[in-house]
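for the recovery benchmark. tokens below, seq after
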């Protein structure tokens, strides 16, 4: 049960002539009324706007404002909502906000309004998460994925899959519980098996594209590796300079990690704690094969740097071998020295000194990740790790169904796995009621009349 009242500045920080502070919760109207000089907000109609002033505890004017009063449940959060439009200016807005905090209105956490909207049944979980994604989107593509009504499309995909599953389950249940009911098809394994196989195919397709979507959204975990002095730090700096990366140092954890995000053609590379990053931050270490191995475990993309002005060393060869099964790009650096001693297939020649070949490298990154064919309209896939996990669990359950059929188990055994898959998919959109299954059963067959 949500019973506190929260507030936050709803407009982008420091822009525009007007700032809006949103207040939501059972006491939103009551509390704002205590600090408002103008009409008595407790007696105004819902969805009306009122002119007046926010006043301090001592009765001084803090700001001249317009106040919108919206009664539950027809509001964004389905709670009482008050929106205060201040005259803007960071300072004044901050003052009004502070005044609200004095009245025991709590500052909202990021996304908390959306969370309430979900908890109050106003939006489904996928939509709520999409809003969270917009808040935390790290790059343009991700923002598009988050924005493009993808939430709706994801919901729809999941609803579709569930609907198909339900058809199978409902028929089986009817067979079991109402053997005398003639209108239902008898669900023998000959009927169930191909249907389950078809569902599995759809799920595989979904998962494949979801992976790519997630890569774009969360950033591709990328490791820059190579023996000392080949130019890892220089490459990192070149990428950082050109693409305005963010470098974060997350200290305080057991292994303080350093992460950098680089935007390449709208795709985020999440450079994981590799040699180059550490060195760039002035912790000069000689990083060899040993350390690279660790970075490699996590990496989804490897940028292997080689100094083409020197012959390949044993260490280079080891790294080439170590990365051969990874998505990798072999980078032959220092092309400006004009003494190319290294010939390797599928490599890209660059110079971090002159930036020669960097464009080509960026194209190669996009190509290697096979993302070039992903146009924006294709983003109707799951884009969230939690969703993907749930779909995988549903897939496992469906595979158990096939196994049970192979082992000639009775139908009611695999009905459990089917229901399980149905529940997993329900978790994605935030519904999981056996009751719902029963309801649908009844509405489908008009049983119990
Ligand atoms: P790391 O140890 O792999 O990180 O290598 P660094 O980035 O620290 O570079 C090692 C040395 O190679 C430095 O003196 C760089 O200036 C030099 N270097 C890096 N990239 C290039 C390049 O493209 N051309 C030339 N000529 N020198 C480079
Ligand atoms: Zn270095």
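predicted aa per position
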């Amino acid at each position: 049960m949500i019973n506190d009242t929260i507030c936050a500045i709803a407009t982008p920080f420091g822009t525009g002539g007007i700032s809006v502070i949103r207040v939501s919760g059972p006491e939103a109207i009551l509390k704002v009324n205590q600090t408002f000089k103008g009409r008595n907000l407790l007696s105004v109609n819902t969805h009306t706007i009122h002119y007046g002033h926010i006043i301090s505890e001592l009765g001084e004017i803090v700001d001249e404002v317009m106040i919108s009063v919206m009664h539950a449940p027809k509001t964004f959060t389905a709670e009482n909502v008050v929106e205060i439009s201040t005259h803007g200016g960071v300072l004044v807005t901050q003052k009004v906000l502070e005044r609200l905090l004095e009245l025991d209105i709590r500052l909202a956490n990021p996304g908390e309004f959306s969370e309430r909207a979900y908890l109050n049944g106003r939006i489904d979980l996928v939509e709520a998460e999409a809003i969270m994604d917009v808040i935390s989107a790290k790059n343009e593509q991700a923002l598009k994925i988050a924005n493009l009504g993808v939430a709706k499309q994801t919901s729809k995909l999941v609803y579709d899959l569930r609907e198909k599953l339900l058809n199978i389950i409902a028929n089986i249940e009817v067979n079991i519980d109402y053997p005398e009911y003639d209108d239902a098809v008898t669900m023998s394994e000959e009927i169930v098996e191909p249907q389950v196989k078809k569902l599995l195919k759809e799920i595989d397709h979904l998962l494949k594209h979801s992976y790519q979507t997630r890569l774009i959204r969360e950033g591709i975990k990328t490791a820059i590796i190579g023996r000392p002095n080949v130019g890892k730090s220089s490459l990192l700096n070149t990428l950082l300079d050109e693409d305005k990366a963010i470098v974060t140092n997350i200290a305080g954890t057991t292994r303080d990690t350093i992460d950098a995000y680089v935007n390449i053609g709208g795709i985020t590379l999440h450079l994981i704690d590799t040699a180059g990053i550490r060195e760039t931050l002035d912790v000069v270490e000689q990083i060899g094969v040993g350390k690279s191995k660790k970075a490699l475990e996590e990496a989804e993309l490897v940028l292997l740097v080689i100094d083409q002005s020197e012959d390949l060393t044993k260490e280079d060869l080891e790294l080439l071998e170590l990365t051969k099964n990874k998505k990798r790009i072999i980078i032959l650096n220092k092309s400006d020295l004009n003494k190319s001693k290294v010939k390797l297939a599928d490599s890209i020649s660059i110079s971090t000194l002159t930036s020669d070949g960097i464009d080509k490298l960026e194209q190669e990154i996009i190509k290697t990740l096979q993302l070039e064919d992903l146009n924006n309209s294709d983003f109707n896939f799951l884009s969230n790790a939690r969703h993907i996990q749930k779909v995988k669990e549903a897939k496992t359950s469906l595979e158990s169904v096939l196994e049970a059929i192979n082992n000639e188990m009775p139908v009611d055994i695999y009905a459990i796995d089917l229901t399980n898959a149905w529940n997993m998919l329900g978790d994605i959109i935030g519904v999981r009621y056996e009751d719902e299954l029963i309801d649908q059963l009844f509405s489908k067959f008009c049983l119990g009349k």
